[in-house]
Amino acid sequence: MQLNQYTLFFIISIISAAITLIIAVLPLRFKETNTPKAFLFLQIPIFLWVFSIGAGMVSPNEGIALFWNVIRMIGVILAPVGWIIFVLVFTQNDRFLTPGFLTVINLIPLISIILMVTNQLHGLFIEEVVFLPYGRYWVDGVWTLGPYFWVHFTYSYILILTGDYLILKEALAMSRRYRSQSIALCVATIVPLLTNISFSFHLLPLKINYDPLGFVFAGLIFAWAMYRYNLFDITPIARRILVDQMMDAMIVIDTKYRIVDINPAAMHILQINDFDVFGQPVEDIFPAKINIPKLLLSNQSQRMEFPIQRDNLIHTYDIQVSTIYHKKSRVGQLILARDVTEKKEIVDQLQKLAITDSLTGLFNHRHFYELLDTEYKRALRLFHPFSVIIFDIDHFKKVNDKFGHINGDQILTEIATICQEGLRQYDIFSRYGGEEFAILLPETDIHQAVQTAERLRQIVEDHTFILPKTKINLTISLGVATLPLDMDKKPHPEALVDWADRAMYHSKSNGRNLVSVWEESFSSQSIQDP
User: Fold this and answer.
1) Pairing of strands 476-482, 515-517
2) How far apart are CA 81 and CA 45, in angstroms?
3) Tens-place pLDDT, residues 99-151
4) Are 512 and 474 in contact (CB under 8 A)?
5) Nearest-angstrom CA–CA distance, 211 and 145
6) Which residues partner with 393 through β-bridges?
């Protein structure tokens, strides 16, 4: 076989058809998405397009060449439809692929196919095609376009350019890796597009159809994209699902702490309105009080919580910084921020429940002893005064028996409220148990503690408790103890509570509604509630 331009392009058309089939079938092993199936639907008309060119060239007569020309045009008509379907699936817009939509976009191609098959009867699609013999090859050297051809031409290029627009639009919102995928797809469609325009409008002074050559390049680009950018197993869809639609904020920075990727959640949280932040230093987009540079200096994972005002509310975010490595080299860092406001509120509520009395809202017995230990050690360390008050409601059992426990609970809550008003902000008030209460008084000597106890006793005595159908007055008995800073051997913190408790029972034994200060002689007295 003599190798001339016609032989060369016949070989190219067959090679192009083979490449088209190969790249159409290979992605089918990726079954996680519908993208490979949509790609196959695109490649089938392209295969018809390029194979029929080669088949037509070696036809035995002009009639068979004309038949392959019709098959070729069917591929030409269906390829743009396959392209737009593939793009919609690839960009995860396949929700539009409803039966109604598919019917609409295939309406003009269906008319085009019918007119092309019956073209010899009316010439609306192509007025005339003249095949010229060049040795053993038939070449369609003369084309006279019919009026309907321009409807097909306009519609096909609208579909192709719409697909390119959707792909490029997707690329603009992607990181560099996924942007390269989309650009590769667009280039793969533009190359055969240019070759087809060159042949259809006789832009080059050659008589051969360059479509197969264009599709050879397109096939090579597709093959390169499949393996270089994992076109079908790592698609922009995955990136959009995992990054763009995630609730957590995500920012990727390079080794110079410049922003290279940011998702919509981060832009919303940080109140960024456009993508001009790409290339900017990452610390520029965070509030000044958040020490982002400090987190970024370490190669180890770091995390912290920070508040930020959004939607007129203060939200708490947990921010985590991790280092990104590629082939053991540090290439950047990943910043993730999660809104933990609700979680923090729940944790705070649980912590509050763990340390407070559910009835009165005061600190509970267990937390009282934790705070006692803290304040006791602080007083010793600073050599500052520290006192304890224990008080009990007089004759409270009779109140419960006469008025019921519901009214008794109301009285406990009311006493907690009125006594809290008689204390300083840093005094520690707790429900010690039953009708007994305990107060820690930091920075308070014995004289100040007695004054506080007397004030509380008077507040309760002067208060009238309003119950259903009656009013009552109550009193309390109080005991006071102070940490003796002049003793060589300091007592245990629990001893202070025991001293105040004994002093309180001394008040009860001496008529109630009294304040008693612990004395050494109380240690020999038995504790009884007279």
Assistant:
1) parallel
2) 9
3) 999 999 999 999 999 999 999 899 898 888 887 787 788 887 667 888 998 89
4) no
5) 18
6) 476
